Amino acid sequence: MWTIAYQGTTFHLKNVRGLRYIAHLLRNPYKKFHALELVAMTLAEATEQPVEEQAGQPARAIPYQLRDAYRQQLNDLQDELEEAREFHDTERAARAQEEIDRLVQQLATAMKGDKPNRQAAARAERARINVLKGITSALAKIAVRSPALELYLSTTLKTWVFCTYTPDPHMPVPWQW
Hints:
Elements: E1 2-6, E2 9-13, H1 17-27, E3 33-34, H2 35-47, H3 64-86, H4 90-112, H5 117-145, H6 147-156, E4 157-158, E5 162-165
Antiparallel strand pairs: 1-2, 3-5, 4-5
Helix pairs in contact: 1-2, 1-5, 2-5, 3-4, 4-5, 5-6
């Protein structure tokens, strides 16, 4: 169970996947996480097992340096994509999205072994959908008990292929765990 307190309201919620995604993002403000990475990290946190040993999979560690390089490259591409969209540069946005898709496929393949790219892309899409559904469901449960917290989270959490928590600089929240 989670005990959640916000602006004088305290309530309890069952430990569901969406809350674990939200908590992970709140613990890491401004950091962008690919949906695959977020699913793997929160699953590892929930079961207290290394990411590589989840779901009965054989240990298949991606070296930290390679994982960090993927993350940095994906973050850079995501920034480029956002900038291209902001400037309505559809050609540049399409190139950035193609590169993101390619890297995501490589990362998914590295995490699950040598499977065809189509399966890696499907895993990434399933992860994106699962993260979105989990967070949406958790926010709906929060809204019943604290509409103010739901409003805050829905405006500061961004979910898509990459997920991030960008706190409002005018309304800092000191999260406690």
